Amino acid sequence: MNRLLDCTEKLRGIISKANLGCFVIVSLLVILVVLFKGSCCGRNSSQNENKQDIRLLFENTEFVTELSRLVIAERTTMEIVESCETRKIQLIPASTANYEIRFKTKYTYYVDGAPERWKIYQHDGVAYVDAPIIRAGEASVDSSSVTGSYQGGYLVFGEKNHLELLKTTVTEIARQRAMERQNISLVRETGRRSLTNFFDRWLSKFGFSTKAVRVKFADEKDF
User: Fold this and answer.
1) 190 and 105, same structural domain?
2) Does the predicted model carry a pTM greater than 0.90?
3) pLDDT per residue over 147-169, tens digit each?
């Protein structure tokens, strides 16, 4: 009878150990499954965050402020303005006075930093930035560089006064010339490089890895 009880106890111990072993194995399997799912979710979440970073860039106040203040190109040149004044009296040949003024000016260019005027997206690791058109800042005229000359006509009087009046218009002339198509063309590629470097720096700052950054302006068709 005692031997039977001993056998029964040993059998219970074996069964208990077996159950404990199964429980441990099952628990380990459950933990591994949970960790695997968590790792997958973590990777997906990280990928989603990276995709969002490039779009959420314009929600960063510091970024938008710096972009609004960014001078994307500068150009210093000597401008020449020519003008003429003609007078005619009946039976007498027309008389013309020619004027010329020269002045040195510095042009600066920027783009509107308002987020709604921009589009940005990523494809195959490349960041595409659709920027607003290039705008001209206030032209800076070197007043000490303003010079002028004239060739008078025999029927034209007050040429010197007229020349001095022309000199007072150089700031307005520079403002108008800054936005002329040919001047914008001269700084377009410089502006594109400035924006490319600017976005590349900020995307890196946000932890977003890109193969390249491509920029086009609103008045261009393709990247």
Assistant:
1) yes
2) no
3) 999 988 777 787 888 999 999 99
- Residue 36 structure tokens: 């695997």
The first and second tokens of residue 70, run together, are 């960014």
Length of the chain: 223
Residue 77's DSSP bridge partners are: 105
| Phi, psi of 101, deg, nearest 5 | -125, 145
In a domain, 54, yes or no: no
Residues 6+ apart with CB under 8 A from 174: 79, 103, 105, 107, 139, 141
Q: Indicate if 76 and 167 belong to the same structural domain.
A: yes
Q: How many domains does the chain have?
A: 2
Q: Which long-range contacts (CB under 8 A, 24 or more apart) does 59-68 make?
A: 59/115, 63/202, 64/113, 64/115, 65/113, 66/198, 67/111, 67/113, 67/198, 68/110, 68/112, 68/113, 68/114
